[in-house]
């Protein structure tokens, strides 16, 4: 089982058999409130009829189309819809099947771009400590979560990392984006001085580092990073696999922060997690750079059998319709102050060290056990599921809450109340 303590799980399984709206249900029929939107991805809740019907219809109409040298209408329709949501001239989409594939695809596009531009020396990739960009070799190379890296050798050559943006002393209990930390983007100048900009292809960051435990970008940080990348002719890649499709109150976090990257990755919420799909959105200039030479020649030697799979495209189109018709991005923005107030009330619970919140996300750090790092977090996961009927995520000794965007005010109160009891029970 992926990213799972297999022996502990099999000793006491946490099984779900069906899901609807805000709830999972165990095989015995016990409801479990979804405090995680699945894995940050079921943004419109579960079992939504329009998406289910679109997938069923598509399976009967066109179950598969070859992705190499052939296409189908829904792939182009969905690409156009996604490009319309993206900022500025981010208007060309390359489809894949997951956030991990999206990260590696973006990095490959960046390397190929500089090659086509005649600047093949620009091969170095810059990530950030505590960053998560999936589990492909490119993603874990620029990623900065130690257990994801340490077992797999030297990874890709020629990578470096910016420092992460979290400082508990300066940012403790910040609501939304912290005031402190924009200056950390200037560490890119040090890396450029060390390696020279002529060797650096791209910088890849999450607008909010999610998997490490919700680290919002400090105010002004992303704008400064954009300025430096432009200054040194380095591509800026935003990993919006988590932050895309409403999680931070906008279609993409780049809109929230007023910063346009050169490449943007997405996945998860694009199909409401009903079918695997990911992708990269590229600026027009990057796309057009590849469109040279004889027209019959492949421009980008990259792709997947299931890129733009018909069922995933149908699911994506129905999902975007649902987000639009129910105003879910705007709803998340409206709910954010109430959500922030609710989760910040947990600061009085025993052993709570910090709470971080941005959009409809939150992480609660608490004191761990001296003899077993992460054990209190695991106990919280167990207690929440079995005793409180609440699904949470953990990041070490922290619990993470990221509910579907359909969550109601009363459900927010209930979720936070349950989380409070979990913290008390595991103290």
UniProtKB/TrEMBL annotation:
Signal peptide stretch: none
SUPFAM superfamilies: PLP-dependent transferases
PROSITE patterns linked to this entry: AA_TRANSFER_CLASS_3
MF (Gene Ontology): adenosylmethionine-8-amino-7-oxononanoate transaminase activity; pyridoxal phosphate binding
CDD domains membership: OAT_like
Superkingdom of origin: Bacteria
CC cofactor: pyridoxal 5'-phosphate
Keywords: Aminotransferase, Pyridoxal phosphate, Transferase
Gene3D superfamilies documented for this protein: Aspartate Aminotransferase, domain 1, Type I PLP-dependent aspartate aminotransferase-like (Major domain)
GO biological process terms, semicolon-separated: biotin biosynthetic process
Protein's UniProt keywords contain Ribosomal protein: no
Pfam families: Aminotran_3
Classification via InterPro entries: Aminotrans_3, Aminotrans_3_PPA_site, PyrdxlP-dep_Trfase, PyrdxlP-dep_Trfase_major, PyrdxlP-dep_Trfase_small
Family listed: Belongs to the class-III pyridoxal-phosphate-dependent aminotransferase family.
Protein name: Aspartate aminotransferase family protein
Organism: Phreatobacter stygius
